Hints:
Blueprint: H1 10-29, E1 37-42, H2 49-63, E2 76-80, H3 100-105, H4 110-113, E3 115-116, E4 122-125, H5 134-137, H6 143-153, E5 156-160, H7 169-174, E6 179-185, H8 191-201, E7 206-212, H9 220-223
Parallel strand pairs: 1-5, 1-6, 2-4, 2-5, 6-7
Antiparallel strand pairs: 3-4
Helix pairs in contact: 1-2
Amino acid sequence: MPKTGNTATSSDQAKIATFRNLYTRVLLGLHAQEHQVLGVTSSIAEEGKTTIASGLATALAEDGALMGFGRDQDTVVLVQCNVSSPPDDQRLAVRSGPGLVQLIRGECDLEAAIQATAVERLAILPVGDPSHGFPMAIRAALLPEVITQLRSKYGLVVLDLPSILNSSDTQVLARLADQLIVVVRAGVTPGKLVRQALDDLGDETILGVVLNDSSSELPAWLENRL
């Protein structure tokens, strides 16, 4: 996404249009008011899920689009659950300090863990320091309460999740999302791995599949899930 105050290039404009189209489809899918938590994942690593999660959250916040879709609040929070891959957008850079891990452990409150970004209406909940405590922390009983707090404070909660087949953490975190988007890198991810990941998640919570870096049409078996 382009930086605030800079003249957008044609490439920037295309990226903006792509994420605007994506969030429109997402919000139409999340039509029920209680559907406030969206998870973004992939079958394996390096498919661009963090780019999609952060780009989607940024575009929604910049456009102030949530209230236009019937939400009471127009703010978005991006929750970093993918410890190995921070967003590329420098406006979403986080400082060292408490985050999700400390919040779950009861070592800080929500206000201390949340960080503002350079994007209006967008906040970020980083993993926190040290991130190596993440796998144990997310299996604690307090995690659902953290998500409940976020639901009450923000119009949309976007979870940047680990990949499905590389980490059991995703199965723990995915159950907290109302709906899930699965990112697939075109021409890279074997179809059998995508099918396995989709089967592991189940159909009930999958909102759709995003084919990343694609110039061709979706295969039919993915098309049916959009």
